[in-house]
Amino acid sequence: MFEDPQFMKAIHDALHEVLVWVGFGTLVGLSAKAIMPGRDPGGAVTTTLMGIGGSVVGCGTLMFFTDMPRISPISGFGFLAATFGAFMLLFSYRLMAGSFFAESQDDDGFIHRKFRRRRRRKLVEES
Prior knowledge:
68% of the residues lie in helices and 0% in strands.
């Protein structure tokens, strides 16, 4: 089984694809985090997974709306599409986490200049 040249070539090609996607996902995730201002949660693994997911989302969306049969995420055009996809994933995460908008209450008479977490801590301490 392991001495079959076709099997070994298939294993080699699969490992090569995994390494390309991990390396490319890291670059895409880092570029998306560089474009989006502010602090981001997660470390290296989260950045890599966000880049891989952004590659799938961005290139898949581009293939859906154009008549191109295949878009390689390693090309320049594919890199831009993948970065846009990772940016949209990061934006939607921040939108869902509530780090863009601060909720107000009826008795608030000032403009919110601090993050929601700091405001929540202050409200809890006053209670």
